[in-house]
Structures are given as structure tokens and as C-alpha cells.
Amino acid sequence: MRVGLFIPCYVDQFYPNAGIATLQLLEKLGVEVVYPANQTCCGQPMANSGYEHLTEGCNRLFVDQFGDFDYIVSPSGSCVLHVKDHLHLHDREAEATVVRSKVWEITAFLTDVLKVEKLPGRFPHKVGLHQSCHGQRGLKLASMSELVAPKFSKPLQLLNMVEGLELIPLKREDECCGFGGTFCVTEEAVSVKMGKDRVEDHLEHGAEYITGTDMSCLMHMEGILRRKNSNVKVMHIAEILNAGS
Amino acid sequence: MKKDHAQLSADFNANEPRVNWHDETLWWIRQKRDKAANTLPEWEELREAASAVKYHTLSNLSEYLQQFEANAHRNGITVHWAADAAEHNHIVCTILKEQGIKRIVKSKSMLTEECHLNPYLAENGIEVIDTDLGERIVQLADEPPSHIVLPCIHKKKEEIGELFHEHLGTAKGEADPQVLTAAARLHLRETFLTRRGALTGVNFAIAETGEFVVCTNEGNADMGAHLADVHIACMGIEKLIPLRQHLGIYLRLLTRSATGQPQTTYSSHFRSPRPGQQMHIVLVDNGRSTQLGREEFRNSLKCIRCGACMNTCPVYRRSGGHSYHTAIAGPIGAILAPNLDMKQYADLPFASTLCGSCSNVCPVKIDIHDQLYKWRQVLMKDGQGGAMKTASMKVMNFTLSSPGVYRTAGKAGRWFLRNVPFVVNNPLNPWYKQRDMPEAPQQSFGEWYKQNRKQ
Ligand code: SF4
């Protein structure tokens, strides 16, 4: 099995540790992983702003970089969802279709493809899990509070394998944090208020770390935590799953 | 220039405790909805059925409309067709004038809000009293409703007490909801007895029987309609369902979704006028056929106006209904409004994080958040984003689609700090106003990988 590692642009630039943890975790589980050096961005920032018609260059590059792998794995539910739902190439649609079908978010890849049942790691801390909406509702990584359906959670299933980790409860288990791509600047007031409320829920319940499947949501909440001089840290779920082993 | 959603919600957020109160109030209703939904194991099947019946109806709308018209006519109801808001207002006004009616009671009609009927009738010398308690409150405050089911949800009980003191003569400082409701009842009861014309909305119209159903909790629609000589019911053409037996699906979903009640207190069926009474139905298009013609947005016409998408929307809860500057606020409003005027409402599809909660609560399974995304594409292609935004997006696209440019654009973080809107490093940057920037690390992932893994 050859896996192409897709590291979203902002993770590459700001949160390399999330990328490194994803890579190491996969290697530890015996997977051959390659990071294609010429990748940049999936085009989501443009598409969510209404400019999907300008993303052809990004799409072409993505198909060129990742077309040959058995799986494409990424530590970002949001970017994976974008590729899955919106990556098209009018002159190479067959290739684009294959790419869409083999792109995976890291936690789902671990639970559904690798069928991981135990992890060697240890993380003796109180952790709050933020359900990033695109992963949860878009990729269905976890059940959703709105639906009358059985409960499950792939990220939680994995966190439960980590020794010493104490998951804190939340008042609102799957409320959006308000990042929302360019929403975070175009609708600054509401975005920040949503972020503050989300962070507060974690703080009230004693979180030492806030984790999740999307670094973008965590970046937004980190910005708010730092502004209030909080010691609580954000950490991508791959870093926790890869910790202490 | 008129304020857009971002500016209006920034104003709303100037008072944080009030935002908290608004958010908590609506979240409480969302939780009641969850509880009610979970009492029915078949909930998701009901949603599926509701969606499918609406889909079928919309696909055969012209036939069902004609069937409805013929049956309503047979029942003794006069049916009118209005292409747009102006025609709707004109029809209502003409009926009332012909009967010499100068004062009417109105209940349960967001459609008349959409058409701005009240000011039109006022100009024509006809006085309208809204009889739904919430509607009456916003009417006294001279404000539009902020929510389709809970029109005065943005008002605290003290503010309502103040309004009642001023207009209905309740004691100053009286804010007990029970006392206020009793005062409103008394005042409205007098009104009912003296009005000869009643206008209601329609929740469901049944093609098979030519009857229509109005759902209320206060019984005011019935009271108005039964006492009046002339009953006018106004409905959008999408309110139709084919058979009476379909009604059960919707009645079970509607109020559980809206407020968490199993049923509205009154689900009143109107089939024919009582002897001596006139009954009219105004079937209104006002952009609905256009929306029906837009394949990607057609499903929005399934809406049964339960308001659940508003109660769950984390943006609506923190920006208030008035920030949407249109009669129907929230996620559903944001996909309906651009159909009527792309320029005026270009901001609304962007007033969302696309979290998807709205689509999940919607009892008729409208893909609301996907439609928000699609409206963004339509609006930007139509040039509603302005030249600046398009140009910067083009630069961003150029950089992101060229690995060379992306890598040489700078060491870790530098490129981003210069080019990506949410981290642009300047004091006017809206990111920085209330949030710290992420720190640029020593190395990007790409740089680390080059050093640490064979290639
Ligand atoms: S879109 Fe769906 S959830 Fe929103 S008001 Fe209409 S029916 Fe209710």
C-alpha cells in the first residue's frame, strides 16, 4: 500500500508538527508514505468564497501529484471534504473521479482502512474534542446531535486507545467554532463570538488540551486562547495519537 | 449604503450579554426539538417521506395547482392568482375595498411580510391588526419579525412590558409573561369582535380536497376567520400537498421541529365558507417559479417554515434575525432571498460557516448548506463580489497552483502572512482584532520532510 500524504497549505506553513505526527503515525503502522513535494493547496479557500471556477489550476496540480497513489491521506477533514465533493477536471474527469474516491481523512483512514485496534501512545492529560463540522457532518466521522441515529465517533474511538487520556464532556458536543474559511475575517464579529463560546465550553470543563481533526478550527481557537493568555493548548489529533511512544 | 449582514451582526455583537441571552434562548428551543424528534424512532423516515412528497409535488406543481383551484372553486372559495408581491397586495386591497372593509385582523402569514402588505394597506387606508401575540408585539414596536415562528424572540420580556405599558396600558414595570399575555388577549378579543375582514396564511393546501390548513397555538386564526364576513387566505404556490393523507407526515414534523411540541394546539382545516361568508385564496408566485427553474435551488421550495434551521444556526443565534435584512432570516432566508434580488442579498449566502447543522434539522431535508455554497458560486460568477475580491482571488489561485511560486514565496509562514486573507499581517486585519496570529515555525512541513526523509 502506497499512501500519498496530503498536507494542507496552512498546516505546511504553520503547523508542521501535525503533518509530522501524521507521517510518523502512518509509518509506525507499517504504511509506505510519500509526500509529493509539489503539492500546494486543494483550492478550498477560493471555492468557499464563491470562486470554484478559478480552482482549475489547483485541481490539475492535485491530480498530477496524487493520481498514482493507492490512497491519499490528510490531517484535515475540511480539505478532504473539499476534494471529495468539488475536485473536477473537465478534460481529465476520469482521473479526477478516482482521486475523489481515494482521498481519506487520517482518523477515518485509521479506523476504516487500517482498522487500527490499539495504539502504543500515552497522553496523560484532560482533553476536549472539538468536532470540526466538515469532518463530522461532511465526512460523517461521527454521529451528529441533530439526527435520530446510533451514536459513534471515529476520532473518539481512537482517542480511547491512548493511555492516560481523560476526555472531558462538553455542554454542546458539536457546535461549530466559527472559523468557516474566509468567514473568519469577513464576518469577524460572529466568528470570534462563536470561537469564544466554543473555547469557554472546553475551559469550563477543565480541558488542558483542545484537539480535533482540523487544524484550521484549532488555529482559530488558539488565536482566542492566546489573546486571553490562557495556558490551554490546541493540538491536532494525530499529535495526540502519536504521542509518548 | 445599506449595512450588510457582517455589519449588522457586528452591531448586534456590541452587547455581548444580549448575544448570550439570544443564543441560549434559541439553543434551548433547539434542545426541545431534539427531545421531541427522539421520541419518534421513525423520525428520519418521516423526514425522508416529507422530502419525497414535496419533491413529487414540486415536479408536478402546475397540475396540482389546477386541481386545487378546481376543488377549492367547487367548495365555494374564490381563487386568485398573483404573479408577484405587488399583484398580491393589489388583490387583497381590492377585495377589502369592494366590501367596504377598513380594518382587518391578520394571523400567521410570513407571506404578507414578504410582500410588505401592511404598509401597502395602510397607504390605502386599511388598518391591520396582527393577532399572533409575537407578531402583535413587533407590530407595536414597529419592527419586522426577526424569526418566522418566534417573531419577537429578540425582545426581552421587560421590553415587551414596556411596549404594553405604552400601547395597552399595563402597569409600568410589569414584565410577567402571564399578565402581559392576558392583557394582549383582552385587547385582541375586542379587536376580533369589531373586524369584518380576516386574513390568514396557509400552512398546507391539499390538492385533492381544495381545503387548506392553518396551524396556530393561540387559536387566533380561527377566531378571526370565524367571526369575519370575509376570510382571505394568502399562500405561496409551494404550500401544496397532493393528498389529505400526506398531512399527517407534515403535522408530525412541523411543530416538533419548530418548538418541540408534538402538535400545534390548533390545526384548523378550512374547506368552504359558512353561509353568508366570503372565502378567498390568493395563490402567490413572487419568484417561486423562477426558483423552481433553478435546478440547484429548487429544493428550497420544500420549506414548511418551521424555523428549525434558524434555531440551530450558530450564526443566526449570534447575529439575530434582523441582521439578514429580509423577511425570512436565517439559513433558509439566505437561500431564498438571492433568488429575488442577487445584488441586494449577495451577502447572505456568505453569512454561514457551512457547518451543515441546518440541513440536518430540516424536516423536509433541504440541502441548505450545499445551496449556500452553490449560491456563492452563482453570485461571484455574476460579478457580485466586486473587482477587488476577484483580483485577489486570482493572485491567490496563481500562487497556489504553481508549486515553484508557492515555495519560493518565502520561508515558512512568510508567504501566508503576505497572501492569505485571514492572516494578513497588518493592524487592520480582522483576524488580529480579537485573536492572536499563529506563530510561524522554524520550518514548514515541506522543509522538514526534505531534511528528514529520503526522496
Ligand atoms: S428550511 Fe427546513 S428547517 Fe428551515 S424553516 Fe424551512 S423547513 Fe424548517
**How many domains would you count in the coordinates of chain B?**
3
The CATH architecture of the largest domain in chain A can be named as: 3-Layer(aba) Sandwich
> What is the highest CATH level, the class of the largest domain in chain A?
Alpha Beta
Q: Give the helix level of chain A as a range of percent.
A: 40-55%
- Mean pLDDT of chain B, to the nearest integer, reads 89
Per the CATH scheme, the topology name of the largest domain in chain A is Rossmann fold
Question: Would you kindly provide a written description of the structure presented here, covering whatever features stand out?
Answer:
The complex is a heterodimer of chains A (about 240) and B (about 450). With about 240 residues, chain A is an alpha/beta fold. Chain A has 13 helices and eight strands. Chain A has helices at about 10-15, 15-30, 45-50, 55-65, 75-85, 95-100, 105-115, 135-140, 155-160, 185, 190-205, 215-225, 235-240, and strands at about 1-5, 30-35, 70-75, 105, 125-130, 165, 210, 235. A four-stranded parallel sheet of chain A has the order 2-1-3-4, sandwiched between helices. The longest helix of chain A has 17 residues, at about 190-205. The two termini of chain A are about 25 Å apart. With about 450 residues, chain B is α/β, with parallel strands linked by helices. Chain B folds into three domains: about 5-15 and about 300-385, Fumarate Reductase Iron-sulfur Protein, Chain B, domain 2; about 40-285, Rossmann fold; about 390-450, no CATH class. Chain B is built from 23 helices and ten strands. Chain B has helices at about 5-10, 15-40, 45-60, 60-75, 85-100, 110-115, 115-125, 135-140, 155-170, 175-195, 220-225, 245-260, 290-295, 310, 315, 330-340, 355-360, 370-380, 385-400, 405-410, 415-420, 430-435, 445-450, and strands at about 80, 105, 125-130, 195-200, 205, 210-215, 230-235, 240, 265-270, 280-285. In chain B, strands 1-10-7-4-2-3 form a six-stranded parallel sheet, sandwiched between helices. A four-stranded mixed sheet of chain B has the order 8-5-6-9. In chain B, a hairpin with a 4-residue loop joins β5 (about 205) and β6. Chains A and B meet through α1, α2, α3, α4 and α8 of A and α1, α2, α17, α18 and α19 of B. Iron/sulfur cluster binds near residues 306, 307 and 366 of chain B.
